[in-house]
Amino acid sequence: MAFYSLKTGRARYRQGWLFAAALAVCLVLASPLLVIVWQAAQSDPADFIDTLWRPLVASLALNTALIVASTTLLCGVLGLVSAWFSERTRLPWQGLWPLLSVAPMAVPTFISSYAWVSLSDDLQGFPAALLVLVSAYSPLVFLPVSAALRGLDPALEETARTLGLGPWRCFFRLILPQLRPALLGGMLLVALSTLSEFGAFVLLRFRTFTTEIFAEYRAGFDSHGAAQLSIALLLAAALLIGLEWRVRRQASSYERRARGTRRAPPRLELGAGKWLVVAGFLLLSCVTLLLPLSTLGYWLTQHGDAAVSPVEVSAQLLFDASFSSIELGLEGAALTVLLALPLGYLLARRPGRVAAFMERVAFLVQGVPGIVIALGLVTVSIRVIPGLYQSQFLLLLAYAILFLPLAMVSVRSALLQAESRLEELARSLGLKGWQTWLRVLLPMAAPGLGAAASLVFLSIVTELTATLLLSPIGTETLATQIWADTSAMAFAAAAPYALILTVLSMVSTWLLMLLLGGNAINRLAADGTTVAGETAHV
Amino acid sequence: MSELSIQGLCKRFAQHRVIDQLDLHLTAGSTLALLGPSGSGKTTLLRMLCGFEHCDAGSISIGGTIVSSPGIHLPPERRRIGYVPQEGALFPHLKVADNIVFGLPRSLRKQRHRVAELLEMVGLPADYADRAPQHLSGGQQQRVALARALAAEPAVVLLDEPFSALDSGLRNDTRQAVMQALQAAGATAVLVTHDQSEALSCGEQVAVLWQGRLLQQDSPANLYRHPRTPELAGFLGESILLAGVATAGRVECVLGGFPMADSKLQGAVEVLIRPEQIRLGPPAPDTVQATVIGMEYFGHDATLHLQLRQGQHIIKARTSGWHAYQHGQTVALAVDGPLTVFAQQGPGRSTAETPDNARFLLSQS
């Protein structure tokens, strides 16, 4: 489709190189997925059914469905309730609660899993996995729902009140339906993340599709069974992505035109009940933040032999792991932002069917579990470009594919802020195309690009699955070290790595806030819906 | 439909008095335009009527029932009011029909009670019932918002700058449709606006709010002709203020002698003349003559800038756009009386006149 448009040669498509570059990026993005699907298409259907029609697969499917459904539901309820209380009621220390509700997102799931599993042997299996995932993922519901609550026009509620609705009926007949897209969108994001979760499940000994794919891949180096299981996982993911698209489309019809200044929505007085809410928030933060982090602190003070497996931390190893984490993070961030530029530019400046199609490819890939992408890349590197296997570049490529959609949203909005009028103005003042890029576009978009880079850095440093599968032999990162030590029950040894990783994660989150201003996360959360809204209004 | 009565109403935000000892009365079934510049407290007043804000002192009663006073605050949902906010605020997740019946009991909602009738009342086709609000123009959204407010047969309809977001062409049509619908429903209505021409054309009554106080409440024509202060005159439309001398029901100014509109003032006064009160004719002896020194042409009418032959005064006159006047042309001026006068409030404020000149002119004639 893209080439067809290119060949029509209309003035709109003069920047053919841009489309070519964006298309190339899309191809890279989709390559692991295409390989997996191609591989599955090659195999014998009977064999395929044999592999999948096993009691083991049935129990995996049940486990996966159970954890996905219960995490999603719990996150939905928790996210909605905490968002409503923190946005719509008058509480003491009002600014603190949103912060505490979002902060658990910065703690990688394998770190909190490590904390819980090292606390007691009983904290394993389904309940522990549910606890860890709900803590980590409820911000995915909290953020869009509280942004939606803040974005609701207070005039709507006031009008409903004058039409005879009390506060409760107002909530159920007006506010809840308005929050539906944000709530469902957030819950689907939780479902997708749970489906892709790997590290927490392994550490907490809960078997799902992802852990089994990894096990089969590791056990035999036979990617056959792993690939077939991947297809099953992929189908489940495809179902969720399809649902998410539907919600997104629906959300566009809820959009209202932007208005000028708006009154802040009213907050409810709870009286003495507010202390109950505060207690609830505090209790929640204890479970999601305080306990995991203090367990980490506890192990830091312990000698290696206090843990089940006594392992001492080597300073050299600690330094090497930190160094390679940071190095991979920086290189990966640079590569990802570079690859996101043509796509982001295309989306910002030449919106249309081609751009929308490419955006869909990117978001499709984002929904695919990391382990499937990593396996696909392994196959690509073995079958198509043998030199790539076990190279650092392959790992960087995996990061770029995994986190490009994340970067793209940021790059796109940064370029949208650098208005195209200014670009045209620069051209009218005699600047050439590349000079405009250098002197107008990039300086104006710099904070947004920086934000995209730090977001990708943050994601890479805390990434585990692809790193485990693709890192060159001998390369250990903080994440893989924590994983290895925790798997070996060497809890004290894992602590320093976990500490450094947590600090790194917080520093880059702080950098992200700095670059995007105070409401960085809100903007990221809102971006998804505005994209859909704008296309609907054309 | 019920009467609306406000007595001694006060409201402060922090130290700032937003509403200050306000009294206002509106008979059942009539329409009041609440006019004021931004920051005059008109929106606050409307929000207090709705029950979104509490009052500090005084009282509001609707249909004889007190809904607000210190210690009493009926919540918005129990006031039987219809509220039309700026830009309509239609519920984006509901169709037009569901928006209209939103405030009705469930059984009436199911049968889409009076939807067709209300749509017709606000001048929209019946098949709009199934449209989504996003697919309506701003003016249409505003009409649906009114239909929604009227559906539950409220005691009072309150409209908060309902036309300010519309562009001028749409604004007139929407305004007419809304006013007709309000009349058809026999509604008691309060419409807040900062646009004086909108206020004058909408209300059977116009109340002017200024820094939280009610300056004047009157019919539109009375308000425009006989504003209580020169500032109010200027706020309501273009005005020429000339110095004059009042004696026994007549006033003398640079444009001649005229009967005064019911005023017992004597001595030095300020005379209000609206540009459209000035009639132009061919110059003749014994007339006040002036030279055209500038013109603003609008098509349907034009504003001429005239320099009086006697004295150095420059005044404005509104004429039909049909007659062409030339720059430098000499014309004769006559004024349609009677004139409104204000007590003289000291020098330096009038737009065209000084007392000395007036006395000079008077002694000449």
Automatic annotation (TrEMBL), chain A:
What InterPro entries does this protein map onto? MetI-like, MetI-like_sf
Q: What is this protein called?
A: Iron ABC transporter permease
Q: PANTHER family this protein is in? A: FE(3+)-TRANSPORT SYSTEM PERMEASE PROTEIN FBPB 2, INNER MEMBRANE ABC TRANSPORTER PERMEASE PROTEIN YDCV
Name where it's found.
Cell inner membrane; Cell membrane
Superkingdom per UniProt: Bacteria
Annotated SUPFAM superfamilies? MetI-like
Keywords for the protein's UniProt record, in alphabetical order: Cell inner membrane, Cell membrane, Membrane, Transmembrane, Transmembrane helix, Transport
Listed GO biological process terms: transmembrane transport
Annotated membrane-spanning segments are 16-40, 60-84, 96-116, 128-149, 182-206, 226-247, 268-291, 328-348, 360-382, 394-415, 436-461, 494-516
Keyword Membrane applies: yes
Membrane topology (UniProt): Multi-pass membrane protein
UniProtKB/TrEMBL annotation, chain B:
Which GO CC terms are listed, alphabetically? ATP-binding cassette (ABC) transporter complex
Q: What species is given as this protein's source?
A: Aquitalea palustris
Which InterPro entries does UniProt cross-reference here?
AAA+_ATPase, ABC_SmlMolc_Importer, ABC_transporter-like_ATP-bd, ABC_transporter-like_CS, ABC_transpr_FbpC, Mo/tungstate-bd_C_term_dom, NA-bd_OB-fold, P-loop_NTPase
Q: Which residues form the ABC transporter domain?
A: 4-236
PROSITE patterns linked to this entry? ABC_TRANSPORTER_1 (PS00211), ABC_TRANSPORTER_2 (PS50893)
Q: Which SMART domains match?
A: AAA
- Give the record's GO biological process terms: quaternary ammonium group transport
Pfam families from the UniProt entry: ABC_tran, TOBE_2
Q: Name one GO molecular function term.
A: ABC-type ferric iron transporter activity
Q: Which UniProt keywords apply?
A: ATP-binding, Cell membrane, Ion transport, Iron, Iron transport, Membrane, Nucleotide-binding, Transport
**Name of the protein:** ABC transporter ATP-binding protein
